[in-house]
Specification:
This is Microcin C ABC transporter permease YejB. This protein is an all-alpha fold. It has 17 helices and no strands. The N and C termini lie close together (12 Å).
Length: 353
């Protein structure tokens, strides 16, 4: 099987996977109480009754419609597209997804695709720093630990990274804000946002400094827990390679430890790390950023997704789910291709089984 046949086969497999994820989520949404129609009816009833509470209910019951004119109910249903059967709404949504028309947000009254793009800079900024710092620190540290296995350096760094891994990023973020954000000690860093209010008036050097000043605490809170996994994976991978027969042969030929490490061990040990590179790169943007974005008031994709679920903003929920699932499937394919690129001994036939 050549590369193009393999890619074609994987793309064909992506279609039912993507369809299944979207269909299951859409079906579940139909039974979630407090949908956009019911929320609108409850707000309308509160306005008519002077702020009294309306009863909740499922998306099909509309128990919040009590006291609201039936024609008004139909207008609200048509406004949100719920005047059509679920199957018709589902197929219309799929047709839009094919052309990347993700619909309009119920809450923001904006195009979902444009809304996602407006939130990307924050998530990309936080994700890039998290990814590069994790790799640039964990890889050298893991190699150093493998070379010095059992030493005081190995034990001390293991304790440090495991302690960092045991502390949730959100808890560490709170601690950093209390310690350095003006909580109870010093105010060296700002409490929220990526830039100051006067950022546009600053010089280019001032803008860079202001940005780094704002991003420091969120990045530290995001990165601390990521060191342990990558560092220990690097260490164990290198140790496994160091103990193989070809390393003993290279040493017997009189090669220096530096030559053995970087000319032989390094190339083979990086294979599992390189294959996970695409997934880690994309995952840094979309995974685990919700609590950090909420804590530091960063208006990114994580906060957008969370607020959309709470507000029952279904076009944003389904649109972001579609994009994230599609990206995840493509990244998985890229990871498999990287595996073959890093290790030519692996054939596409074995990956497709």
């Amino acid at each position: 099987m050549n590369i193009w046949s393999y890619i074609g086969k994987r793309v064909l497999l992506m279609i039912p996977t993507l369809f299944g994820v979207i269909a299951i989520t859409f079906a579940v949404i139909q039974f979630v109480p407090g949908g956009p129609v019911e929320q609108a009816l409850m707000e309308l009833r509160k306005a008519q009754t002077g702020g009294g509470e309306a009863s909740g209910g499922g998306a099909t019951g509309y128990r919040g419609r009590q006291g609201v004119d039936a024609e008004r109910v139909k207008e609200i249903q048509a406004l949100y597209g719920f005047d059509k059967p679920p199957a018709e709404r589902f197929w219309q949504m799929l047709k839009g997804f094919v052309t990347f028309d993700l619909g309009q947000s119920f809450y923001h009254h904006k195009d979902v695709w444009g809304l996602v793009k407006s939130k990307l800079p924050v998530s990309i900024s936080l994700g890039l720093w998290t990814f590069f710092l994790t790799y640039f620190i964990s890889l050298p540290l893991g190699i150093a630990k493998a070379v010095r296995e059992g030493s005081r350096f190995d034990v001390a760094t293991s304790i440090a990274v495991l302690v960092g891994y045991s502390i949730p990023g959100f808890v560490l973020g709170v601690f950093l804000l209390v310690l350095f954000g003006g909580g109870s000690f010093v105010q060296w860093f700002p409490l929220r946002g990526l830039t100051s209010d006067n950022w546009e008036q600053l010089s280019w050097f001032g803008k860079i400094t202001d940005y780094l000043w704002h991003i420091t605490l969120p990045v530290v809170a995001s990165v601390a827990g990521s060191f342990a996994v990558m560092t220990m994976l690097t260490k164990n991978t290198f140790l496994e390679e160091i103990r193989k027969q070809y390393v003993l042969t290279a040493r017997a030929k009189g090669l220096s430890e530096k030559a053995v490490l970087y000319k032989h061990v390094f190339r083979n040990a990086l294979i599992p790390l390189v294959t996970g590179f695409p997934a880690a790169f994309i995952g840094a943007f979309f995974a685990g950023s919700l609590l950090i974005e909420t804590l530091f008031s960063l208006d990114g994709l994580g906060l957008l997704s969370y607020e959309s679920v709470i507000r029952r903003d279904y076009p944003v929920v389904m649109g972001t789910l579609y994009l994230f699932t599609l990206i995840g499937l493509v990244v998985k394919l890229i990871g498999d291709l990287c595996y073959v690129w890093a290790d030519p001994r692996v054939q596409f036939e074995s990956l497709s089984r």
